[in-house]
From TrEMBL:
It comes from the Bacteria. Residues 68-202, 532-648 form the Peptidase M16 N-terminal domain. Pfam families: Peptidase_M16, Peptidase_M16_C. The keyword Chaperone does not apply. The lineage of its organism: Bacteria, Pseudomonadati, Pseudomonadota, Betaproteobacteria, Burkholderiales. InterPro entries: Metalloenz_LuxS/M16 (IPR011249), MPP/UQCRC_Complex (IPR050361), Pept_M16_N (IPR011765), Peptidase_M16_C (IPR007863). Residues 1-30 form the signal peptide. Keywords: Signal. This is M16 family metallopeptidase.
Length: 953
């Protein structure tokens, strides 16, 4: 089971780049003139993509944009408040983001903590918020029959949140946000490097100078009076826009929006922010040390604001230089010269000004000076010589595919429309946006690079391994236990009718995407899930060739084989494959998990057959060329070293080693070990491929705008001639895991001196796929730690303020199952956090769920199902996973009945049978000097291990 991401995660800097800057809506009237409305909001007319929409403004200034889309019985609610860090006062960095957190704390008519519970009970998905420099957004997606519930919740957040925020709520969210900062900056590789870069780029007083999340000092000094003043100024209906996208009746939606938002009182016009673009006239260089394994080089320039002249050209330049494996810097530094582990280039467009950045992570031993000289030479060449027509075509193909993929989900479609409404002043601006890219020429790209990306106008940052230099620690004061008098105030009058949540409309029957299969004569299973609506296709070739198939002396072999497949075939080099995919606007990725390997593909329908031909070539005719094997081995050895940087990843890696025991196929990292990587050669790779990559042991899963007849026409000539080239590998049963002794849970500590947080991972053996009560297990886990509103996350985050997020889940594999509970906590509360976790686990096994909690968490699993299969990629992933674990095709379509049958008794039985505290292995990665005494205070015997998981004596 995939664990949910922590909620209210800010996007660290500016967040809307190339893949976002390309929607193509027309006005509702213009679109309606082109063709009748289809089931979806997106149509093709005149060779362009159009999004039908309607925009209106209430008397109080509140903006509403409607995007009618009947592909699925879902409605996305996307509320943008037009305020972000650009609107913060001096000394209040992080204020806009902290306010985002407070918006979920409760309102006058929605009790504290109930907002997320309403969303869960309704079957909501994608419930979250985010802040970037220019705006704050709040979004969720609900089943269509809950349209009125969504408007009730959104309107109360905007109009009556300030009524309920007090010093207790403020102190709690200050703790949560500071934990988020520790997790996202101080305890994340290169986090403080990024912050230092922005401080070098922008002068004091510029609203983009600080991280969106703010500093510890500024977050802690925010007072309740500041919160109220910010609400009075910015959180008013005349400074907000709601986009509704999905399955609704426009007339009903308009009437309900008027009912719920029409009585909100407007505020004064927010003050305008006018800041000149900073100008750098002499290169600025800085060196920042951090707890990182690899050195990193960054170049950053100030560039034109979003949609200004030159912005589109710099998007294209970013693609040419570092937009994937086909790009110039990747080919030069990663593939040919092998000096870099990774290259990323982007035009980060914002309203006041943008940034163009080049980020190069160096291989061990590589010279940053040499890397800089080579990268500068490529920049100079692009400024002097226009890119080729093929490079420009690749950029445009990528843009087109990313555009349609962003329109595939109503959640991201709604956000895209809101983006254009604020940043361009018109949700129908996207047609003009597309025209910008159509107007780009090779010469204009070159001229724009020459003008803006000059060496004397940039900041150069070298990130080096070492101890980070952090500001003095800001103490966390004791949280108040009660609110003082006079802490509450109102911007809008109370309306008693709002206290009762609206009743849902009539729900449509809950159906999930069905599939059927056919088998080619060579034994390849083809699973087809038709999903018309947008001209997109996704596919996954899944094989039982994961980590479990590794020989005992070759950990990492399965993932090495998968990684090599796109690196060259008998007729195409890795570079040629990358260029072919880029010209199609397609993606092809290969990876091996615990029990299966997958080659995942996506593209426009028009490119799908040609792209699938590349996939067929990759899986049937891999080259395993010696030079490429050597290069990829070095890259994987470097990646293995990088895992030591990430505390959460390190905790997970060590936990697997302890759980499964030495010599078990799942005990080592998927990358393998240094010894095994050095020993694996081309012959070993080819032998594994011959034994495991066979049509009779594979399934091709395809979803999207393709009929069965079309699919048969594609796959028979591409995959029908696939035949094994050697004997099949024997399928050995997977050995069992090695749980902790039942008399005492096991605790492992990995020292990470100076870490501001402790990364915790708790693991235990769990049930396998095919479990009759799997739905009961998942409902029980939803209550325990699977949902944002779960007992564990609520206690450790919302009550105690110990963490940014703590979640649990079950992985039900074909031959192995596992329970995992993980998250990071503040270092000084590691012991109390573990004690709380133990209490919550014990309580889950002590008594059945109450009726209200059962209904909420069961509905969160049941009613959210349509929203979990809303893209081609999600449908493909679901059916690929089913096949990999040996489940029948109808296992997905039967999920509603299975979840609907879960009772308090069956969930309680699942907890008693599959939640075993005595089998839990706890791995803590943190500052041992602070953590060890806390663990001993709990009475735990602690087993020290190093970063490779080896026992220390």
């Amino acid at each position: 089971m995939t664990q949910p991401a922590p909620r209210r995660r800010p996007l660290p800097w500016a967040t809307l780049a190339l893949s976002v800057a390309l929607a193509l809506p027309l006005s509702a009237r213009a679109a309606a003139d082109l063709e009748p409305a289809p089931m979806g909001a997106v149509s093709l007319a005149g060779g362009q993509f159009n999004i039908r929409h309607e925009k209106l403004t209430l008397a109080n200034g509140f903006e509403l944009i409607l995007v009618e889309d009947h592909r699925l019985p879902l409605v996305a609610f996307n509320l943008w408040v037009h305020a972000g860090p650009r609107n913060e006062a001096a000394g209040q960095t992080g204020f806009a983001h902290l306010f985002e957190h407070l918006m979920f704390a409760g309102s006058r008519h929605v009790p504290r903590g109930a907002f997320d519970q309403f969303i869960d009970a309704a079957g909501g998905t994608d419930s979250n918020g985010s802040t970037n420099f220019d705006r704050t957004n709040y979004f969720f997606t609900l089943p269509a029959h809950q349209l009125e519930l969504g408007l009730w919740l959104k309107s109360d957040m905007l109009g009556w949140m300030i009524d309920e925020v007090d010093s207790i709520a403020l102190a709690n969210q200050q703790d949560v946000v500071r934990n988020e900062r520790r997790q996202s900056f101080e305890n994340r590789p290169y986090g403080i490097v990024e912050e230092a870069t922005y401080q070098a780029l922008y002068p004091e007083g510029h609203p983009y100078r600080a991280a969106v999340i703010g500093s510890h000092a500024d977050i802690q000094r925010i007072r309740l009076a500041d919160v109220k003043a910010f609400a009075r100024t910015y959180y008013r209906p005349n400074n907000a826009t709601l986009v509704l996208a999905g399955d609704f009746d426009p007339a009903q939606a308009k009437a309900l929006v008027q009912k719920y938002f029409g009585t909100l009182q407007p505020g004064p016009k927010p003050p305008e922010v006018k800041v000149a673009m900073p100008e750098i006239t002499k290169e600025r260089r800085l060196v920042v040390t951090d707890r990182v394994e690899l050195r990193r080089l960054n170049f950053v320039w100030h560039t034109p604001a979003m949609f200004a002249a030159g912005d589109a050209e710099l998007d294209v330049a970013a693609h040419v230089l570092g937009g994937g494996k086909a790009s110039r810097l990747h080919a030069l530094l990663v593939r040919d010269r092998q000096l870099a582990q990774s290259v990323q280039v982007g035009q980060d467009s914002q309203s006041l000004s943008s940034l163009f950045s080049v980020e190069i992570v160096a291989r061990p031993g590589a010279s940053l000076d040499e890397i800089e000289a080579l990268a500068d030479a490529e920049l100079t060449r692009l400024a002097a010589e226009p890119p080729t027509d093929a490079e420009l075509a690749q950029a445009r193909a990528t843009i087109q595919t990313q555009l349609l993929q962003r329109m595939e989900r109503v959640t991201t479609l709604a956000d895209l429309v809101n983006h254009y409404n604020q940043m361009a002043g018109d949700p129908g601006y996207a047609g003009a946006d597309l025209a910008r890219y159509a107007a780009v020429t090779p010469a204009s790209v070159s001229a724009t690079v020459a003008r803006w990306l000059r060496p004397d106008h940039r900041v150069v940052v070298q990130a080096l391994p070492g101890e980070p230099v952090l500001p003095p620690e800001v103490p966390t004061p004791p949280a108040p236990t009660r609110a003082a008098k006079g802490e509450r105030e109102s911007l809008n009058a109370a309306e008693a009718w709002r206290r009762q949540p609206p009743r849902p409309g009539r729900a449509a029957p809950l159906t999930l995407p069905a599939s059927h299969s056919f088998t080619l004569p060579n034994g390849l299973t083809v699973i087809h899930a038709p999903k018309p609506g947008l001209p997109l296709v996704s596919a996954s070739l899944v094989l039982r060739a994961g980590q479990a198939a590794n020989p005992a002396d070759r950990p990492g072999l399965a993932s090495f084989v998968a990684a090599m497949l796109p690196e060259g075939t008998a007729t195409r080099s890795g570079q040629q494959l990358a260029e072919s995919l880029a010209s199609l606007g397609a993606t092809l990725q290969a990876q091996a998990g615990a029990e299966d390997a997958r080659l995942e593909f996506s593209s426009l329908k028009a490119s799908a057959r040609e792209g699938l031909a590349l996939l067929a070539d990759v899986v049937q005719h891999p080259a395993f060329a010696e030079a490429e094997v050597t290069r990829k081995r070095a890259q994987r050895l470097t990646a293995l070293a990088q895992t030591r940087e990430q505390a959460d990843e390190l905790a997970s890696t060590v936990a697997q080693r302890v759980l499964y025991g030495e010599g078990h196929p799942l005990a080592s990292p998927s990358l393998g070990t240094e010894a095994s990587l050095q020993a694996i050669d081309a012959a070993a790779l080819r032998a594994f491929w011959q034994g495991h990559y066979r049509p009779e042991r594979a399934a091709l899963v395809v979803a999207g705008d393709v009929t069965e007849a079309e699919l048969r026409d594609w796959v028979q000539p591409l995959f029908g001639a696939w035949q094994p080239t050697g004997p099949a590998a024997a399928e050995q049963p997977l050995p069992p895991a090695q749980p902790a002794p039942r008399q005492a849970a096991r605790t492992v500590l990995v020292d990470k001196p100076g870490a501001p947080q402790t990364a915790l991972t708790l693991v235990a053996p769990g049930p396998k796929a095919g479990l009759p009560d799997a739905a009961s297990v998942k409902v029980m886990n939803a209550a325990l730690g699977g949902l944002f509103t779960s007992r564990i996350n609520h206690q450790l985050r919302e009550v105690k303020g110990y963490t940014y997020g703590m979640f649990s889940g079950y992985s039900l594999g074909r031959e192995r199952g596992q329970f995992t509970l993980s998250g990071s906590v503040r270092t000084d509360v590691t012991g109390p956090a573990l004690a709380d976790l133990q209490r919550e686990i014990t309580a889950m096994r002590a008594r059945p769920l109450g009726a209200a909690e059962l209904q909420r968490v069961r509905n969160a699993q049941l009613l959210s199902l349509p929203g979990l299969f809303d893209t081609n990629g999600a449908v493909v992933a679901g059916y690929a996973a089913n096949w990999a674990v040996g489940r029948p095709l109808n296992a997905i379509t039967e999920l509603p009945a299975q979840y609907g049958a879960v009772t308090a008794a069956s969930a309680f039985q699942a907890a008693k049978q599959h939640l075993q505290p005595a089998q839990l292995i706890t791995v803590a990665v943190g500052d041992a000097a602070q953590v060890l005494p806390q663990l001993r205070k709990l009475g735990r015997t602690v087993e020290p291990r190093d970063a490779d998981g080896r026992v220390q004596r």
